[in-house]
Amino acid sequence: MDAIDEGYVNGSKIKGDKRHQLSLKTARFEGVLEVADAKTFTEAFRNGIGPAKAFGCGLLSLARV
Length: 65
Prior knowledge:
- The protein has 65 residues and is an alpha+beta fold.
- It has one helix at residues 38-47; strands spanning 2-15, 18-30.
């Protein structure tokens, strides 16, 4: 598997009456995935992974090999 540095995503989040600045480090992983638990994988594929999904992170793109 290869990990590619994608840089940072910057933004802000409003919680209550406060605005919080965010800086998220992003990476792209490329390789071959072997699925051991189809149900858990399907859930992750549908919902994304990680805490930064609202910022466009945690998306999965797949291609059959």
